[in-house]
Each structure stands twice: as C-alpha cells, then as structure tokens.
C-alpha cells in the first residue's frame, strides 16, 4: 500500500475500492502500479475540459496545462488548484521520486518531475492515463 493510508477527505476501505474499480485501475490507483507508456487512451486527448481522478472524480488538471512531454504518459504542468493533488516522497525502486496522489482520496496518479523547461512551471506531472477520467467542457 502506498499513501492511501493517510488522512484524505474521502475515506474508503480497500474492499470498497476493489468493488468500484476494475482490476487494472485498482492496481494503478491503489497499489501504485504503472501502465505501459504510449498505451493510455488519454495520451492524445486534445479537447477542452478537465482531467479528474479515476477513483473519485475529483478535478485534478485543466486541459490547458496538458503538454506533449514525449514520455508516453499524459503530462501536465500544473493542477487545477494547490489542494487537488498531494506530493509524497516515493523511495521505491531504489530511488527517490515525488509521487503524485489525488488530494481528495489519496489514489496514486503518477509522479512529478522538474524537467519540463518548456513549461511555465518547469514541472511535469507524469500521470497514468488509467488514473484519470476526462470531462469535456460544455459550451
């Protein structure tokens, strides 16, 4: 288990999450697995809207902050607000990285890197496509 054991506004048991999420999404969102690069349905999403948590549907990233990082995963340079996502130190795999989790339910989304010099923040929120849903902006 990763950061889900912390205090987040939305609390559910792992059995409740298992009942709500398919096996692949559960593995990514609740066990911090990573999907294969270039495999996610949202990688090439270009419509205006907002990306939400694949577990609880909390709003996470506005489409205007999405960019092509060339990494094979949807990438964003900023969240919808400072509380939308939380940053957690990840010491797995023999390295230190910054894990990104949903600020509402604590589900694993991906990792944050500071290597996006082409963006206003320099940040690259590298997210698993399956950790996200997309809500198109209605006009």
TrEMBL record:
Short name of any one Pfam family annotated for the protein: SelR
Source organism of the structure: Marisediminicola antarctica
Entries under InterPro entries matching the protein: Met_Sox_Rdtase_MsrB, Met_Sox_Rdtase_MsrB_dom, Mss4-like_sf
Gene Ontology cellular component list: cytoplasm
Name of the protein this chain belongs to: peptide-methionine (R)-S-oxide reductase
Needed cofactors: Zn(2+)
Record keywords, A-Z: Metal-binding, Oxidoreductase, Zinc
Catalytic reactions of this protein: L-methionyl-[protein] + [thioredoxin]-disulfide + H2O = L-methionyl-(R)-S-oxide-[protein] + [thioredoxin]-dithiol
GO BP annotations, alphabetical order: protein repair; response to oxidative stress
Similarity section: Belongs to the MsrB Met sulfoxide reductase family.
The EC number(s) this enzyme carries: 1.8.4.12
GO MF annotations in UniProt: metal ion binding; peptide-methionine (R)-S-oxide reductase activity
Every MsrB domain range: 14-137
EC category name: oxidoreductase
